[in-house]
Amino acid sequence: MLARRGSVIIETNPLNIEYLKMFYEWPGYLKRWPFWICGGTWDLGGQALEPFREAQIREIWLSGGKYKETDCYGQMREQLERLGYIKNPRMQSVAELDSYFDRQWKLLLELSHDGYKEQSALGGKPGHEITVRIDREGRLVKCREGSHRLAMLRVLGITRAPVTIDIVHSQWALADDRAAPTSGSLAAKIRARLEQDYGQVLAWPSWWPNGCL
For residue range 136-159, what is the model confidence (pLDDT) as tens digits? Predict the structure, then answer.
């Protein structure tokens, strides 16, 4: 199983992505795992969670740019005045708070006008898209990067976006209970299942010899 983790990008509907774990609930060893397929119990546990930042982003969008009038702005401003800082994201001044909300508003406007672009097209690192993991049941589970971007896509109703698949569970990768639309190597079958169940494959490591994983 030689493919590097995060080396596959697909285009899928953001609504297909589920929040099941907080960042601290993922096993620590996953940070050091180098490959795309991983067995074990890393995907077990968790529960359905509210999509991170989605309520906040929806308030900003519905405010029409008057984000200082939103509940979320008021709550963060109150926390700043009470504690001297905002916990998450970490901010220590009204100027930082205003800049944060202004940035979210401008990004929402840009997305609504121009659509979503891959990070490579924006000068970012290839593969640093909204990131998910595929668990043993085949669910796209949100992890790592792109929580704000995912919230914006969902709020704006954008139905297709590039997503980096960080890791897939070996039970999903090796499952043979469903007929794949192609025969041949394991890599070919997995790619076919990705396109059948989730959407077009946008990035697939060309160096995998004969489709070897």
Answer: 999 999 999 899 999 999 999 999
